[in-house]
What we know:
Blueprint: E1 26-28, E2 37-40, E3 47-50, E4 55-56, H1 57-66, H2 73-85, E5 87-91, E6 96-98, H3 100-108, E7 114-116, E8 124-126, E9 129-131, H4 133-138, E10 142-146, E11 157-158
Parallel strand pairs: 6-7
Antiparallel strand pairs: 1-2, 1-11, 2-3, 3-4, 5-6, 5-10, 8-9
Helix pairs in contact: 1-2, 2-3
Amino acid sequence: MGFSSFLTSDTKESIFNKYTLNNKTVYLLMPNNEQNIKLFNYNGYHTFESDYGDINIFKKLFEMNFGENVVTENNKFDLGVACYIGKFYKTKNGNIYANSIVAEVLRFLNVDNVFIYENYYKDIFIDGEVTNIIKHNKSGNFEKCYVDSLLTSHLKFSFNEAAKYESFDKAEQCPNQGFF
C-alpha cells in the first residue's frame, strides 16, 4: 500500500499526516482493557511515532491478532496489510482460493481447504473445472470474503485518549489520504 491514512473510529475524522497543518496526536485503541497507544507524526506510509518508538500500523495489526514473535519483522507488514484489506474466494464446495500472502494469514487462523492462486487470470483447477479466479467469480460460483471478517482485533483510532476499543467499529481508510 502506498500513501494513505485512516478515519477515526468514533468521529470519522481524517488522521492527517505530519506534512499538513492538521496533524495531531491520535490514539490506537487497544482491546481487552489494554492501555491505548499514543501516536503522533504520522508519516503517510503506515508508520506513526510513539513513546515506544516507531509503530508500523499494519505490523501492529498482525501482532494484535497473532502475537509478536510468530513471523519475522519483514513478513509482518505484508501479513498485516493482508489482515486489513486481504480477500479470498470461497466456493460452494467450501474450498478457499487466496493469494500466497492471504493464504498465510488464513493458515494462522486455522482455516482449512485453502488453495493458492498466482494471479486472477491464470487458469487453475477450481472444483474440478479449469478456469481462473475472474471467470469463476463472474459465474457466481464464488463468495468473496475478507480476512478482516475473521479477525478478533481490528485497527481503531480516536483523538480521545479515553475512548474504549469495544465501543467502536474498525477504522476505515481515509478517502483524502490524510493529506488533501
